[in-house]
Amino acid sequence: GLLVYILYQLAARELTQRKEAEKKLRLSEERYRHIYHKTPIMLHSIDTEGRITRVSDHWVEIMGYQRDEVIGEQLTRFFTRESRDFAINSIFPRFFSTGFCKDIPYTYVKKNQERIDIMLSCYGVRNEEGDIIRSLAVSVDVTEKNLAQKDLQIAKEKLSQYSLDLEGKVKK
Fold this sequence. Notes:
Elements: H1 2-38, E1 42-46, E2 52-55, H2 57-63, H3 67-70, H4 81-98, E3 100-109, E4 115-126, E5 132-141, H5 143-171
Antiparallel strand pairs: 1-2, 1-5, 3-4, 4-5
C-alpha cells in the first residue's frame, strides 16, 4: 500500500509539473502571436511552397486585405510581374538554400492596385533536421524614400544642366 501511495504521489507531481509546463508554453505562444500581429511593421511568413502562412495586422492594413484573403495565397500574387519574376528566379532559390536574405527590393500591389516599394529581409525557420520549413520576413515601405531620391536626382540633373548653360553664357 505504501509503495502504491508513493507511486501515486510521484505521478501526481509529474502530472502537475507537466500541466504547468504546458501552461507556460501556451502563454509564451500567445505572447509571440500577439507581438507578431501587433508589431507596427509589415511581417509575413511563407512555407516552402511560397504560400503565406501568417501576416501581421500592419501588413493587412497597409495592403488593404482581410487576413483570410491572403492566408494560403502565394506571396508573389501580391508582387508586380517584375518583382514576381525576380523572386521566383533569383531570391527564393537563394533563400531556401541559405535561409537568409537582406534588403531585397520588391514592389507590392495593394488591393486598390496602388503600388508600394518595399525592402524585404527574412530568415528561415528550420526544423530539427535543419531544413527550412517557413520564413519570417520584414517588409519596410520605402516608397517615399525612393520618390525623394528620384526627385533629388532630377534636381541634380537640372542643376548640372543649369551650370553648363551658365558656363556657356560666361564664355560668350
